[in-house]
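User: Can you write out an input/output pair for a complex, sequences first and structure second?

Assistant: Here is one pair. Inputs:
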Amino acid sequence: MPIRTLTILLLLAGTSAAPLAADARSDAKKQVQFGIAVAQRGLWREAIYRWERAVQIDPKYAEALNDLAIAYEHEGDLEKARVAYEKALELEPNNTLIKQNYELFKEINDRTTRKDSQDNQNP
Amino acid sequence: MTGRLARIARTTRILSSVAAILLIAGCTNYYEIPIETPIKPKLDVSAFQRVLVAGFIAGGTDDVDGNLETTRLLRSQLRTKSDLRVIDSDVLPLMEVANEDKGAPLEARADSPKADGKTDAGSEGKEGKSESKESKAEARGEGPQPSSPDKAPVIKDAKDLEPFEHVFADVEYWKKIGEEYQSPLIVTGTVMFTPHQRSGIVQREEEVYDSFGRRRVVPVRTYMERKGYILQPKFIFIDGRTGTVMHSENFREEVLYNANQSTPALSSYFELMDRLIPSFLSTLSSQKIKGTRVLLE
């Protein structure tokens, strides 16, 4: 009897958690879509706000992290961009579009890092 | 049997990667968007309103006056591509200063750039103005003549530069120069522009026509003698208020041409400087790198 109850409880928990996750993704997706719309109009600050919200709602949303990384890159915040890209790739290592964005970002980031290390060598 | 299995495995791998790409592209809405990544300047020059490109210790070939040409080029670039006001003045004869440096009193050293006795620290006129001043000073034989035609250049390679480099660490000298020009950011350094030749296997593209008359471009590897130039500038940024070195940067660029091609040294010099000017400017002013990224839903 207790085993049956436990099974029922587990099933109930499973069935209620799935819609919750789906709801979170759906809410986050709305933020992402809005962010894309405003970014396309050049309103990058607003886009950052939306994508940060999306990541808060659904921290496993790799696409939102990718978009956030792009926005940070556009704002010149290369460190934050790197962290966001790497998180996105951690979640979706086979996503070729995120990989492509990251490779392009790395080219710029490596150049500035190289500059910094060169500066340190030349006091 | 093993070969067949390997073939099947390879086909499966290819198909699965194609499927993965199609899946990502098919399931995800994506939007290409242009972005401009701002790169912060390496040096904080917010404390300066003015910049003095003081001059360079130059060597290598005597076909190009590295001191005058580099000074002119940097001044004109800074005038159009930075927020700093460029000071027009005579180019400092740094080699002479470095030679005098060993014994002469500070006053005498710091006075040496004032070819006509009154350096116009305040004038930010057109470049032509500074050029005319430079040429006047040169006509009087008072201006910078590190590589004047009658004198063979003392500096042939990077090693020859070493005895002169102590001048950049002469805090008192640069402080005095800074005081004269109302504490600007001072840009100085060394410029080596040396002829260079190299021979070896080179890959080049060649046009070929097949039996049907169709044109194709194929890579061909041939042995070639080539000659050109190496440009090695070192830019030193000095705080005109304190006379201390804030930052320095080394660059190296080279160009090679076919041995039978005759390219004037000055044109090679500008070709090589063109390549490193963006890096030089990014030290003082922020740059934007344009690109495109893909936003995902």
